[in-house]
Amino acid sequence: MNRDDILLKAQEFVREELAADGSGHDWHHVRRVWENARQLVAEEGGNRFVVEMAALLHDIEDWKVTGKKPGEKGGKVEAFLGRFLLSEADIKAILDVVSGIGYVKTIDTPELRLESLEAKIVSDADKLDAVGAIGIARCFALSGNKNMLIFDPDVFPVSDLTHDRYVDFKRKGNTSINHFFDKLLRLRGMFHTQAAKKEGEKRHQVMVDFLDRFFEENHMPEWQDFLQKFLLKTGG
To answer: Of the candidates 35, 70, 36, which has an alpha carbon nearest to the alpha carbon of residue 198?
Structure first.
């Protein structure tokens, strides 16, 4: 079986595994990440097969999908890769990318850096789908899936967010709107490739405009002020 056939099998596998996902990590999210990754690898270089496979498989064991703790794996990706006659180097490279990317890993260790170009490309491809109009839609999909409030005007986002607080969907103040401040607005400064940085800027502004309008329609000028101060503080 050649590599293009393996990529087709990976698409079929992901479609089946994530068919019932309602958290914004479904096949359509993976498809967009895959398309983003294909564009980035064409511009940046790198191992195309490793990038495409990692992009397709990156959410199979994501903690938001499985309900497990971040980093806790069930072996599904390894088992899938084991079906094919792939080199140990390719398998390791794909697994390293899948296990290495993810915003949650950087909360307590902001100095964490991705080493390979392939990991940087897949990370950028994934983060692009977390921002902009798509990012807004996925934020509310995740929030609904986790039974989170849309907005609580009495609870502002915390400035000292930790890993444990971030992964606790039931914590007070973990609303859809606060998720923008906890994660989405912070992604602007976390892209690696020039193409992703350029597109990320556009998508970042879409979210800023949305939030400003959201607070205006809620008659919450104090939240508009909070947004502007947050952007100044984070360079946004």
So the answer is: 36
Report which residue type is found at 90.
D
What are the pLDDT digits (tens) for 23-37?
A: 999 999 999 999 999
61: Cβ contacts below 8 Å, ≥ 6 apart:
68, 73, 74, 76, 77, 98
Q: Are 58 and 97 in contact (CB under 8 A)?
A: yes
Q: Topology of 130-236 in CATH? A: Methane Monooxygenase Hydroxylase; Chain G, domain 1 (1.20.58)
Could you read off the pLDDT of 158-178 as tens digits, one per residue? 887 777 777 776 666 689 999
Sequence-separated (6 or more) residues with CB below 8 Å from residue 109: none
Which string of b and e fits 127-136 if b means at least 16 CB within 10 Å? bbbbbbebbb
Of 3.40.50.1100, 3.40.50.150, 1.10.472.50, 3.90.1200.10, the CATH number of 1-110 is 1.10.472.50
Q: Which two tokens stand for residue 38?
A: 């294909």
* Cα 197–chain centre separation: 15
